């Protein structure tokens, strides 16, 4: 069994790992647990997802940052390819400065892989799609 945090209501769902790919819905709000799109979170939302079992791929970004805006479609596309192996989160560093400080984010975009509350890997800058994909495949831990 795995704990999966709902991207809509942030309730935790207990799910058999074999059902991950079977388009599971949230027991509380009945919305899909995976919709192929990154989830925007604040510090509280991040904590909810970090307390669940899926590895997190986190995009620390800001609206004023050109490279961040350029990278956004790559991140979204990658999300649709890698779900349900990972949960893709977007953290607006302007809205959640404490969370950015906690992870020592000095430049944006910064991409982090976090699993069980701990940083597993990070890369700075807007990577080309192929490079980002290779990085994810080499760094993503197995969920569960
Ligand atoms: Zn829900």
Automatic annotation (TrEMBL):
**Matches recorded under InterPro entries:** Thio2_N (IPR049299), Thioredoxin (IPR005746), Thioredoxin-like_sf (IPR036249), Thioredoxin_CS (IPR017937), Thioredoxin_domain (IPR013766)
What Gene3D superfamilies does UniProt report for this protein, alphabetically?
A: Glutaredoxin, Zn-finger domain of Sec23/24
SUPFAM superfamilies documented for this protein: Thioredoxin-like (SSF52833)
Give the keywords, sorted: Disulfide bond, Electron transport, Metal-binding, Redox-active center, Transport
User: Per the record, a Pfam family?
Assistant: Zn_ribbon_Thio2
Its GO CC terms? cytosol
A GO term for molecular function: metal ion binding
According to the entry, every stretch annotated as the Thioredoxin domain falls at 17-141
> What family is this?
Belongs to the thioredoxin family.
Q: What is this protein called?
A: Thioredoxin
């Amino acid at each position: 069994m795995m704990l999966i945090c709902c991207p809509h209501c942030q309730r935790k769902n207990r799910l058999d790992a074999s059902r991950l790919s079977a388009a599971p819905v949230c027991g509380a709000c009945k919305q899909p647990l995976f919709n192929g799109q990154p989830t925007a979170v604040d510090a509280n939302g991040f904590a909810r997802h970090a307390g669940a079992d899926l590895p997190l791929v986190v995009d620390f970004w800001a609206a004023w940052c050109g490279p961040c805006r350029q990278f956004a479609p790559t991140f979204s596309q990658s999300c649709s390819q890698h779900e349900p192996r990972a949960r893709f989160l977007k953290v607006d560093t302007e809205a959640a400065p404490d969370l950015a400080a906690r992870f020592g984010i000095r430049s944006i975009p910064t991409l982090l892989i976090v699993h069980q509350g701990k940083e597993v890997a990070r890369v700075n800058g807007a990577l080309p799609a192929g490079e980002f994909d290779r990085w994810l495949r080499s760094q993503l831990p197995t969920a569960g």
